[in-house]
Amino acid sequence: MFGERGTGLSRRRNFSRLGTELALAAVVSALVSLALYMALNALFFGILDRAFFSEARMIMREQACVGRLQAYVTENGLSTDDSKMLDKWASGEKNLLITIYKDGRFRYSNDAKVMVMVPEMNEWEDTSWLYEVRFADGTAQAGVSYYAEYGYYTVASVLGGVISMAAFALILVMMIRGKIRYIDLMEQEIQILKGGDLDYRITVKGKDELASLASEIDAMRCAIKERQQKEEEAGKANRELVTAMSHDLRTPLTSLLGYVDILQMGKEEDSKKQEKYLNSIRDKAYRIKELSDQLFEYFIVYGREREALEKEEVNGAEFLGQIVEESLFDMESGGFDIRRSSNEINCRLLADINLCRRVFGNIFSNLLKYADRNRPVTVSYEQREDCLIICFGNYVAEDAEAKESTGIGLKTCAKIIEDHGGSFYSGQKDGFFLTQISFPFIHSKKGPEN
Fold first, then answer.
1. For the whole prediction, is pTM greater than 0.90?
2. Cα separation of 92 and 12, whole Å?
3. How far apart are the first and last CA of the chain?
4. Left (φ > 0), alpha (ψ -120 to 50) or beta: where does 115 sit?
5. H or E element in which residue 383 lies
6. Residues facing 409 on adjacent strands
7. Is there a contact between 309 and 342 (Cβ–Cβ < 8 Å)?
């Protein structure tokens, strides 16, 4: 049982509807933001290309640079080996990379890294981008490149990334906005329940874990509400019981005090009447004791937790024989006509024997008190698939209505049987009173006993 439940929980953890929805939302948001990033890069780079790197603009800047270099070389009579003078001139040019070749061989660059990376000129397929510069030692070819504008491309790329990330967050929030609103709604509804309005129903939307959580909270609300209703009903029943018991106790107590007062005042000298009064006092006193015992037993049983029962495993047939049949034999000896019916009883029960004796003792006490002795009392035992059914049926005596009854005993019996996991029914129709007890039994792995 626990293994199956653990497997179910494991499957739930492995497959999360809410997690899947959020993952899909994140993937869609990432794809859209990536597409936006690429589009922004293309847009920004296109603008930069047109603004800084158009072919005409690049040629004009390179030609101007080569013109300044030629004037500097001619003025100072420099050769291609005068690297220090060339460095001095290059340092005055901002963000310039210049490379000089002579006779197809690399001779100079204002960036030391280029000296080991740039191949010989004769390895280039296209040398149209080189410009001729006349040095003292002959004509050389110069490659000119400005790199300051490349920083703008970095800024444009970063700006596109920031906009794309903002778009990713915005799209993701918009896609999960329904879940966020649902969480806010659940919080508001929980606050309503916290305020004590248990009639307010929690909204259940969707089929993911949030919906499952809302459903569980609503089920908890119903359970709390049902428990409160039961407590209110129990409180009402107890108040009605106390009211009824106070009336039932007051009636014999008033009579008892009246008889005592008559005897104490000595107004009655007839010994027979005095004896009659004493017998009445005795009867009323026993009636008060009976009512107080019933009330005491009622509150003991209703104050007992189900786990506090002292259950023991018993054979079903032996249980009926010891607790039920012995009392039936006594009734037969007292003149009752007992008619039994039963199928095969081979089950085992888990019962608190002392409490079960109280149940059947109360039933037999009612039979002796209210059953019509001139008509048969029916008793049936029936073993079903999962429980043992015990039924008592009797016709009510004509003078039964004149006998006082609070109904406490039957309520006590019902509580005891319910604590055993069974059910208790009692009712009257057309002068016939029926009591039925459903008692669960233990399912043995080896099968029922023989």
1. no
2. 70
3. 29
4. alpha
5. strand 377-383
6. none
7. no
